[in-house]
Please model this.
Amino acid sequence: MSRRKTAKTAAEAAPRCTVTVCRGCCCGTVKVPGVDHAAQLAQLKVEVGSVAQVRAVNCLDACEQANVIVVQPSPEGRAGGGRPVWLGLVNDPDATAGIAAWVRSGGPGLAEPPAILELYEFGPSRRVRRVLEG
Model:
């Protein structure tokens, strides 16, 4: 019995942005009330899943900024100067929609983020950066 590799679509084969959604000890829990956390993650998967990898992780260690979403550039975006963008306090549907629109446009290094996202951007601590870069 032979195994055939299935052909990937152009969108699946192309290097893509990665959208990392924190769902650890604070983000994605009742500690951040009034947010439909499951709907937020589902919205991102539906809106950008065809052009970006969307993944949920346990904890990004930036609990004071819950809910945290990190948008990492594609290789093409990184070549264009894009760097990971950390967004905190992403607790309303308009912010999530802004992230999705930006990622669909290319994300870091390829498209300017919507102005609303300036309100959410923050820098992780040096300790967290060391862990992520190390």
In short: The helical segments are 10-13, 37-48, 75-79, 93-105, 126-133. The radius of gyration is 15 Å.
